[in-house]
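Our preliminary data section would be incomplete without showing what the modeling component actually yields. Below, a chain of 393 amino acids is followed by its predicted structure, encoded as tokens that our downstream tools consume directly.
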Amino acid sequence: MDARRNPYAPGAGTPPPELAGRDGIIERASVALDRIRNGRSARSLIFYGLRGVGKTVLLNRIRLDAEAREIASVSMEAPEGRSLPALLAPALRASLIRLDRARAATTAMSNALRALAGFVSALKVKHGDIEVALDVEPEKGLADSGDLNSDLGDLLLAVGHAAAEKNTALVLFVDELQYVPEEQLAALIMALHAANQAQVPVTMVAAGLPQLLGQTGRAKSYAERLFEFVAMDRLDKQAATAALCIPAEKEGVSFEPQAIASILERTHCYPYFLQEWGKHSWDVAHESPINATDASFATEQALAELDASFFRVRFDRLTPSEKRYMRAMAELGPGPHRSGDVAVLLGKKVTTVAPTRNTLIAKGMVYSPSHGDTAFTVPLFDAFMKRIMPTLE
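Predicted structure:
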């Protein structure tokens, strides 16, 4: 069929043509943000789940919906090896300037910009990766001590007062939150807690891998009361069928039931993989309806493309010992697996391979769903490891 009309959109954070199965989460976020703007209490939201469940797509959708309701946003993605102040400062500067230009200048807004200037000036020495220019003079004694725990709290309070004077709220949208170092995550949690206690309209909507639950708990014991943790998983069959079929139906194309069943089985109903299989099913089919044979060819092409990109870029980040550890996990199946069982396959003691496991967790390749267990953060990665490393030896 005509590739130019192919409706599917596989990609990192690319909005799917049909965002199925997430209406309840979107509404919960909308209610929480409106409550914050209206001076009522609501917890910050953290979405957590494996790669490919649509966390980034959901985060962006909620941000766009909030901006359409004139709620101010600060959008960030936390990469490995970058400090929280370096991420926050330029994003917060851009948001404050937009907010300042949108309505008449206020004393609180000027105070927020001076607080940000002091924050940047004080922390540039400690965190050398901060690169942002501000054309306002800092106010001495405001968010400029050089102590992140203290300064970030002062900064968010100043920003919150500015948002309140503009009759809106300011929301930090943070993707890949698991990459923020724990001591900096603790400072962020403390700052949000201070804003919550002061009842200023500042909150956070964040997303990350499953290890976020443990990280936030270790950073601050009260995190479970400050945040609403929302688990994101694969879609149920009804939502997965909608995500697969509705985009094609809008183009006058249908799927045979056997093709739908085959694709749902191979993708395990993960949103990202549904887009990949949908794209390839469309491209290999000659006519509507897309049948089981088309779905079979699509599986071959989808796996080849995933192996060359989605899976491969993650595999290439690994050291030889890390690759072998993950190959041993794959030998045991999708998981989760006891760390001791992985060590046995490697012919080593658990304590010997523990550092390798820890670096894999830090890289976001695996996580620990419970004490002593290890699981892949990327669905279908066990099968990929067997394809790219046919034997454990």
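The domain at 23-231 is CATH 3.40.50.300 (Rossmann fold). The mean pLDDT is 92. Preliminary results of this kind motivate Aim 1 of the renewal.
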